[in-house]
Each structure stands twice: as structure tokens, then as C-alpha cells.
């Protein structure tokens, strides 16, 4: 049965692969972008997730086109990496505002429709960094760790209405962001990963579509790692 799915940050990398996976399943998919470029078959909607008014407007647009959002994938995120003593307040605030507060805006708006339907799936894309920490990424790690607390609180708050809230925590993934690394950097990273390679965006998308599917109806408050074993035990 085709569902109304909203994926944020759906123009490239992990977000694009997630949107494409839902389109391939026959769902009605909307993908937010800042400058366009949603996958073929998805409704392209422009949104800055840090702006609650823009988030509200996007949901209204998607609801008119596809009906109430049944699956939300909060994927949009940014980085501003630097060591703590060099990190500006703006470096901190911009990353937290996009990655964590943006997800709050999305979840709050999505939940309105889900509560009326008495069903829904909230899926937050975090990172292995949110569990392990990473030098030079205090802002990013804090924002991604915050998603775990957000999801687990919503799992408890909304479970009685058959709304699940889960987290996918990717490790190192083959994307534009990792393509810029040198061969030495890439080799050092792979040496830390038990499976000895990067993930593909499609492998992350597989975990997301599973959480949104019938087989995960009794899964909520979970953190699903897609990291090749890098963060095991966390």
C-alpha cells in the first residue's frame, strides 16, 4: 500500500538513496532540498529545516499532494568541523540548529497528522560519531547523540498511538563528503572498520526502509548501526 513519505536532505548522498528506495517501493515520496535536485519520481520541496514556518509550509504542501505524512525520515544535516578551542559559537549553533533542532521541528509537525491517523514511523539519521565521539566534531557528535535521546523520548511518548521512533546510525559511507579524503585518510578509516570498507548509501537506505516496513512494527526506540562494526558495543 502506497504511503506518504517525507525525506529531508533528499538531493544527494544518503538522503537521495533513501528517497529512491521508497520510490522504488511504490510510495509517494517528497524530498526536501535547499536548491533542488530531488530524485526522479519524488516531489521536490524546498525547505530550511531550521525554520519552523518553512517546515510547516512543506508539510502542508506534501499533505495536499500525497496526504498526511506516514513516514518521516529526518536526514538533513551539516558539519562544521574544528577543534573545540577553535570552534565558534556559530559553528556550534548552526550544526545543532540543523541536525537536532531541525529534527525537532520535523517530528513535531509530522506527529500532528500521525496522531490523527493513530500510526506513523519517525526515523532519524544519526551517526556512529554520535555514539563514539570524534575529535574535531564536538558539535556534530553532540547533535547526532541528541537524536537518540529525542527518538527514545518520542518512542515512549507516542507508542500508545502506534507511532514508532527509531534511529539509524551510519558509519563511513561512500558519499561526496568522503570522496574528498586522501587515499591515506581513507585507508586509515578502513583499518578501523571490521568489515574493512565503507558502506554504500543504498545499504543505509535498506535499514531505513526496513524500519518503515511491516516487519519493524514492534521496533521502537532502537538505534540501528550501519557501520561495518565500527561502533559495536555502543
UniProtKB/TrEMBL annotation:
Start and end residues of each Ketoreductase domain: 3-176
Enzyme nomenclature, EC number: 1.1.1.100
One example of a Gene Ontology biological process annotation: fatty acid elongation
PROSITE patterns: ADH_SHORT (PS00061)
UniProt cross-references to InterPro entries, sorted A to Z: KR_dom, NAD(P)-bd_dom_sf, Sc_DH/Rdtase_CS, SDR_fam
Alphabetical UniProt keywords: Oxidoreductase
GO molecular function annotation: 3-oxoacyl-[acyl-carrier-protein] reductase (NADPH) activity
Family: Belongs to the short-chain dehydrogenases/reductases (SDR) family.
Protein name: 3-oxoacyl-[acyl-carrier protein] reductase
Organism: Nocardioides perillae
Lineage of producing organism: Bacteria, Bacillati, Actinomycetota, Actinomycetes, Propionibacteriales
